[in-house]
């Protein structure tokens, strides 16, 4: 399992599409084996989703996130935990402990109203070559 966190100065960065760094945690059996900070080179949300795919990330923790980014992550098979703030390390530890406080409807833009089910379910065509 690999968890990425939008990252700035040790904290969860609050705007996915503008994040300049991810902190990526490699997890095995509920324990963080290693972590590294990866620069994004200031790409937009579609490119950011591809960066996460290239890093083989399957879970993202972030603050606010727009609907386009949510769609890109969903299509990539990446599980999203939005609306998170505070320490990046503590957020990952909370997720692994099963008690991360997150907002399933976190947004950093105006509320978009899509058809029911558009963001739901597993599309089965993740970029990592395996099912979720």
Descriptive notes:
This protein has 132 residues and is α/β, with parallel strands linked by helices. It contains 3 helices and 6 strands. Strands 1, 2, 3, 4, 5 and 6 form a 6-stranded mixed sheet that branches. A hairpin with a 2-residue loop joins strand 1 (2-8) and strand 2 (11-12). The protein is globular, with a radius of gyration of 14 Å.
Q: Helical residue percent?
A: 10-25%
The poorly predicted ranges are 110-125, 128-132
Order of helices and strands: EEEEHEHEH
Q: Look at the helices and sheets and give the structural class.
A: alpha/beta
Q: Quick check: average pLDDT?
A: 84
The largest β sheet comes out as: 6 strands, mixed
Strand content: 15-25%
Number of strands: 6
Rg from Cα:
14 Å
Count of runs of 4 or more consecutive helical residues: 3
Shape: globular
Quick recap:
It is built from three helices and six strands; from the N terminus they run E-E-E-E-H-E-H-E-H.
Describe the SSE topology.
Elements: E1 2-8, E2 11-12, E3 21-28, E4 31-39, H1 45-54, E5 59-61, H2 67-75, E6 79-81, H3 88-97
Parallel strand pairs: 1-5, 5-6
Antiparallel strand pairs: 1-2, 1-3, 3-4
Key structural traits:
132 residues; alpha/beta; six-stranded mixed sheet; 6 strands; disordered C terminus
């Amino acid at each position: 399992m690999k968890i990425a966190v939008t990252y700035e100065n040790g904290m969860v960065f609050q705007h996915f599409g503008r994040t300049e760094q991810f902190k990526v945690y490699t997890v095995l059996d509920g324990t963080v084996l290693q972590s590294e900070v990866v620069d994004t080179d200031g790409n937009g949300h579609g490119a950011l989703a591809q960066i996460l795919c290239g890093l083989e990330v399957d879970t993202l923790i972030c603050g606010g996130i727009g609907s386009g980014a949510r769609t890109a992550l969903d299509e990539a098979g990446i599980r999203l935990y939005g609306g998170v703030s505070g320490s990046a390390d503590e957020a990952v530890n909370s997720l692994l402990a099963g008690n991360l406080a997150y907002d399933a409807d976190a947004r950093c833009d105006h509320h978009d109203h899509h058809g029911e089910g558009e963001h739901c379910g597993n599309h089965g065509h993740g970029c990592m070559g395996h099912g979720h």
